[in-house]
Write a structure and sequence with these properties.
By secondary structure, this protein is mainly β. A five-stranded antiparallel beta sheet has the order 1-2-3-4-5, with no helix packed on it. Strands 6-7 form a two-stranded antiparallel sheet. The termini are far apart.
């Protein structure tokens, strides 16, 4: 599918997100790469064979704790 020189990574390569975008729709939150991978802004992916790659969230998000702010409301700490 890719005609770039050097060729972009294939859809099955671990670095598939390094392929060049051929369509970009920021208002809809996705980009189509030249290797056929559909990349979503939440880091999820749809591969050309229909397989889904779940979003990859940073580990720090799971470590957020909630406390009480000086105003009595809830705040992250």
């Amino acid at each position: 599918m890719c005609a770039h020189n050097p060729p972009c990574p294939t859809a099955m390569a671990p670095d598939r997100e390094a392929a060049r975008p051929v369509a970009h729709r920021p208002e809809q939150g996705w980009s189509l790469l030249c290797n056929g991978v559909l990349v979503f802004e939440d880091t999820g992916e749809l591969l050309p064979d229909g397989r889904i790659v779940a979003p990859q969230w940073p580990l720090a998000l799971g470590r957020l704790r909630w406390g009480t702010s000086a105003r009595g409301g809830r705040s992250r700490s």
